[in-house]
Amino acid sequence: TSGEIADSEIHDETILLSFSLFDSTDVEVIHVADSSHESGVELARSLAHSDVRLAIAFGNTLNANPEHFISGLSHGAPNLFIAGGNAGDNACFEHSFVIANGEVYTQGMVLALLRGPSLQVSNRAILNWAPIGNEMRITRCQDNVVYELNGKPALEVYGYYLGEEVLATAPQSLMEFPLIAMVDGIPVARSPVGLADDGGILYAGGFRPEEPVRFGVADIGTILSSACDSAQEMG
What we know:
Layout: E1 4-6, E2 9-11, E3 26-32, H1 37-46, E4 52-59, H2 66-76, E5 81-86, E6 98-100, E7 103-105, E8 109-115, E9 129-142, E10 145-149, E11 152-153, H3 154-162, H4 164-168, E12 179-183, E13 186-190, E14 192-195, E15 201-203, E16 212-218, H5 220-234
Parallel strand pairs: 4-5
Antiparallel strand pairs: 1-2, 3-8, 4-8, 6-7, 9-10, 9-16, 10-11, 10-15, 12-13, 12-16, 14-15
Helix pairs in contact: 1-2
């Protein structure tokens, strides 16, 4: 990961194990080598007549864009609950991996499929990134790589609005300032996860040409308070 939380403390470069125990729910862990939209649809078809209620998915953002797979899986299995995250490498932005059944994979997706008639599932998302500054437009991009904002190089725009010192330790420093876009009426933050060889910024999620975006900032106190309130509501 890029930081771990255990017993109310934040750790770096440690191994964190989390266990979930069920009385009657079966869990199957699988690896899907291809992170494409078609691969997600294919998995959804294989689950169409099963009792799988929840898929916890983990992807390698540094190697591919897991969003395509998740989109295909969601489209093909609209009643399936999907949660998960992306693998990190302690903010080195070099390589990441996922693990399934004792094997390490640097490509594709790993999913834990939870099935059982008594399993009760609900989910929600908490953004807590506050949009700041003027609205900008993605004027040049390719999937999850952004080259231009408002017709100017993306890195130049970051430096102009956030200060040249932000660029000194890019891409690590850029993670604190994701781009927020509206997706189906829901604000979604895409965090920078690397720099492309041809000058673009690599994000954990794709963009559309001419899509309006704004910079996002976060306040730790607000995030913790909102997460606590949400957990109490679901409890």
